[in-house]
Amino acid sequence: MERILYTGTKNASSWAFRAWLSLREAGIEFKERVVDIRRPQRFDNLQRITEFSPSASVPVLIDDGCAIFDSLAIMEYANDISGGGLLPAHALLRARARSLLSWQHGGLSGLCPRLSFESAFYPETRPMTDEEHNDTKRLFRFLEQELVQGGGPYLYGDLSLADLALVPTVIRIYSHSPQVHSWPLTHQWIMRLLSRESVEEWMSAARDLPPVILNDYR
Question: Where does the GST N-terminal domain start and stop, copy by copy (predicted)?
Answer without folding.
Answer: 3-86
